[in-house]
Amino acid sequence: AGDQNLFTSLYPTLSQQLPREPMEWRRSYGRAPKMIHLESNFVQFKEELLPKEGNKALLTFPFLHIYWTECCDTEVYKTTVKDDITKWQNVLKAHSSVDWLIVVVESDAKKKNKTNILPRTSIVDKIRNDFCNKQSDRCVVLSDPLKDSSRSQESWNAFLTKLRTLLLMSFTKNLGKFEDDMRTLREKRTEPGWSFCEYFMVQEELAFVFEMLQQFEDALVQYDELDALFSQYVVNFGAGGK
Prior knowledge:
The protein contains seven helices and five strands, in the order H-E-E-E-H-E-H-H-E-H-H-H. By secondary structure, it is mainly alpha-helical. It comes from Phalacrocorax carbo.
């Protein structure tokens, strides 16, 4: 969300650098941590893309929402950007989406052309005060991202670390909820009207997710469980069960 042209100018660098460094993926239930490379598909913010109540899909809606701005003028912030961020956050709240990040892109060239910039009332401080409450880390600065300088690279590295961390946190949380919903659905298999085909689609999607993360052993476990469940289903049906 936010400044689409700004994001478009940074997207080639972002998409190239994001998967470069691996992240340690820690999950619950005593599972061993694994190193994974994160690749993300970025889509323009639209309310219809947000998950609806009861949506059991895992791969069809965005996990982490990012607002991009390079505003460095306090008056412009007051008159337009603040309202835009407010509307964006209200839509997220309405859909119980709590995973978000605001990125303020700073450019020395832009700052030099402005006279009403005061360090104590910087745009970043205003955004943190207006929107972040105790989550000040949800607003980050990206300094001169298109410059070829050590300062620019340091800024990119700090931003990418934050982005990878938030992406992984959000993904892990959504994956955990998806697995819980899948277990609930599996436990209902003795009830009338339970559909193996419907359940197969759910667990197969989980296998696809593990394949995307190159966690092939975890993906294979999903298919083994489906195979065992189907075999039991056939045996029960042959014995006159349901």
